[in-house]
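Lab notebook, bench 4. The sequencing result for the construct came back, and we need a structural model before the next group meeting so we can plan mutations. Quick request posted to the team channel:

Model the 3D structure of this chain.
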Amino acid sequence: MLRLEPRKERSRAMALAAPLIAVVLTMIFGMILFALLGKDPVQAIITIFWEPLTNDFSRSELLVKGTPLVLIAVGLAMGFRAGIWNIGAEGQFIVGAIAGGATGLAVYDVQGIWVLPLMCLAGAAAGAAWALIPAILKVRFNANEILVSLMLVYVAGLWLSALVTGPLRDPDGFNFPESRLFHDSATLPILLEGTRAHVGALAALAAVLIGWALLERHEYGFSLKLFGQAPRAARFAGFSQSRTVLLAMAVSGGLAGLAGTFEASGPVGQLVPGLPAGYGFTAIIVAFLGRLHPAGILLAGLLLALTYIGGEGAQLAMQLPAAAISVFQGMLLFFLLGMDVFSRYRLAPAPRGARKGAA
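Done. Here's the predicted structure in token form:
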């Protein structure tokens, strides 16, 4: 028999290899899943991972899908490093879209280069405020931030539905649940002509660079790492746990809210009930697949964006159900967390006495 034996220190090689192993295992078990659904497993993998890279439009869509994933994941990684589990980024994404979109609609007839920055500020502020709700409850009442932030996702979704069927509904939209189309001043400029890629991709890249500087070269990043590994030592060093929780949640919520504003003012161009696309939840996979490091998150965000685009293509070309693609993405997180176990533990033969006792 075999058992898990703690390593004396974490295996760096296994930690670095875990994402690659997880991707390979996801492909293998994904092929089994597609075969059980009666589809050609090899063709499904090719459709998901290769075909989106063969034409210019699909390649540009990597920027469209990757931008919100990277923005949200960079913020989440800061909290995760400190053991602060913001699982409600999807709700902060929605609230950011609402605040940014409502700001643009409030000045619908006004043109100016200041409109879009104002929308971004409103969206980031709203996302941060929404994230501070579970943060304050955790600091003040020791409430579980996982449950509170997750439940607020549903509140945000219902709020969006109520607004687009009520105060923000397009008066000329024949009672469809949607807002007006945003004015040109409230729409993100296109980065690549003839595509949907917008300048939000540059903001995501800036977030990666700033995130790297904060996490790897700043006292703030050191405090996050210290709280994640040795909370008592962090307190002895003079770092405030309450301030760390509040700031980490505010930053992650602000970036999620900014991503929501980008989505509303970019690819969608208005507020609609279907605006939430699961980016807030998928960004959790991106953060862990990227090893909570901004550079890794950038690569992981592009990989997950590839599965979004390829998954949509597989649904159309091979009639794969959307749920199968979601399961496929979930496998990636499952195998990644499983491989992480082996960076701290290794398989070893069980002691002789334990084997006899089991017999």
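The mean pLDDT is 92.
Will bring this to the meeting.
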